[in-house]
Write a structure and sequence with these properties.
The chain has about 750 residues and is an all-beta fold. Among the domains are: about 10-95, Ubiquitin-like (UB roll), CATH 3.10.20; about 105-150 and about 510-660, Immunoglobulin-like, CATH 2.60.40; about 220-280, Immunoglobulin-like, CATH 2.60.40; about 660-740, Sandwich (Immunoglobulin-like). The chain has one helix and 55 strands.
Length: about 750
Amino acid sequence: MVPMQQPPLAAAEILAVSLNGLQVDAGMLLLRDADDHLYAPARFFDDWNLRKSEPAIIDTDGTAYYELRAVAGLSYQWNQQRAELAISANSGAFVANIIEAGRSRYGEVSPYTTGGYINYDIALTQGPASDSAGGFFDMAFFRGTSLITSSFLARDDSRARLMTTWQRDFVDRSQTLVIGDAYNNSSAWGLGVLYGGLRFGTNFELRPDYLPFATPGVEGTALLPASVDVYVNNVLRSHQDIKAGPFNIQNLPVITGSGDMQVIVTDLLGREQIMSETFFVNPILLRKGLDMHSVEAGWLRNRYGLTSNDYGDAFASATYRVGVTDALTSELHAETLPGLRTAGLAVATRLPAIASVIETSAAISDDSNQGTGRTASVRLSYQGSRWSANARGQVNSANFRQLGSDVASLPRQVVAAQINTPLRDGTLSLNYLRRYNVGQQHSRILTINYAKRLFGSLQASLTVLRPLSGPADTMVQFTLLRLFGNDRTGGITVDHQEDQNGFYTQYQHATPLLGGTGYRAAMMNASLVARQELQVARNESFGSFQLEMARIGGETSTRQMMQGGIATIGDGVFLTRNLGQGFAIVDTNGIANVPVMLENQIVAYTDQRGHALVSNIQPYQPNLIAIDPLALPLDASVGNTEQTVMPRRCGCALVEFEVRSMRSATLIIQLPDGTPLPPWTVVTVTETADEYVVGSRGEVFVDLPYAANNLITATLADGRQCSLRVDHPPADQVSPYLGPLQCSFSVR
């Protein structure tokens, strides 16, 4: 920054300054040149988000000043008699604010804590025909940024490996690399397949704070610092404090579909601006300029669940999707197999007049045996504030082939439609499916469902399934469901199909999450068979257990099931229930029986080591974990009682709460020469910010955070420090006096 030499400064002025009607400084030092032009200090421009005029002038104390008159959009009135300066600034005088609304709600994704776990699900079945045993097992090992998972299935006479993968997530780039067994990216017109190989591509699930689809933004101007509240369908979805000037709030956490948005801007003087608009958001449409890509290569998996290592033809596929504009997204997808190449494109566009998105796709295949084939499809999606609809149509030529095609059931025509709408305080759903496969007759099915809450906790639903082709008869099902409190339900179902009537009733008591017993009893009477069922389930912190009994046609079968997991993190081993996509280890520094809450719900209690394992943690999402300070011992102290964690997939978050067993005591401290500490001497205790003042005779009342070896330091008036170490007093002493104790100038 080059200091300005001209015009020369004439004097300094101390003025009461107001900005757009708000007094911002009762006495600000400003500089005045020979032409009575005023210059304000840099901090004034920074504090109020004003643009700075160049060049600056530098005062003798090194402070930079900028000329007010040179700022575009700024004017002022100077009352020299009253020493007042009234500044008026329009939007052009301020620096623009661009705010990512969703990002502030999320923290950093933590790396993997070295460890692993094994989940097991074992079942033993005894029946009149035969007995059987089986189990499902999955395991995970993680460290740093890498995750290895594997699962397998065991039966009486067979063993099969299911999925084995090595995965690494690049959170900052929203990309994931997978080597092993995986499913491919099916794209707009492709089919999903299971394969062994590698996959690398975009994964926006790693960044839940970032919405990849086009969302509405909020633009406006505040002439003073203000707060901005955004309401979506009358629900507050964002609160932002902004500086003065133009603002653009992006990445608003709105729901998909159409709705109404209201923005209220309230400045420091209480003045409000209210802006209203409607919006339409669909996740199919990417933001302008944003792209998604995926590449897969490997060998197709055969006989999944039956054999462990049956891999077939090699393949490769690639997908690229980009937001051309906020209202237009295009996609390219290509696949190759031995003797087969398939490629196509898709385009999705927004139809704002009817709050809809239409997506069309077309592809062509070249098969060495079948020749050239083609496919085309169109999909329309409507999401209104009250009702929604989806429709899809696809036509394939007889020779069209693609990755995952089943030659025994090749589709030629597919038409599907769905409508959901509120009706008389209930919800009506209509589903229509028409499908024609090569060598088969057309199949058409219409499904109608209506669900409604009758009164209180009684709910009813009616489902009608009507085949519109073939000899099949109409199926009608009516269900009544009653809620008894928060953990009990009962229901009755009546159905009719092809001259057969069925009556099914059940009553269920949910198994308590924290531990306890639940049960379910059911009975079915049909035209051909009668069935009775009884299930008892038990949840413990180390596993879940179930016993099922079923009597069918006079014969009884039983099944015993056991589910649980074993996790090892650091030097700790934990027996637990099945672990899902993420979990956390809570440490309360040895304090047992402390309630641990996940999202304000008690989910566990700490064990004798002060540890608790919390399952059902959502990966890449903020999870609020807290402890109840009222459940701590009276002599315990704790700092922060809640933490937000964001683990990786299948990973573990370590949540440590600094709980200390605090004891209070009155210390009688003497200097090395045996004289008491002087009154008003300041005393501190190790690793605490508290200060204590010595009274008469060297007495001082302190809190001791540790059971042993607390470092006590007294700072004398001359700056010297005299220290000593103190253990907790005996537990049976209610208000203990310790001393006299002698401090030393050499203790560290």
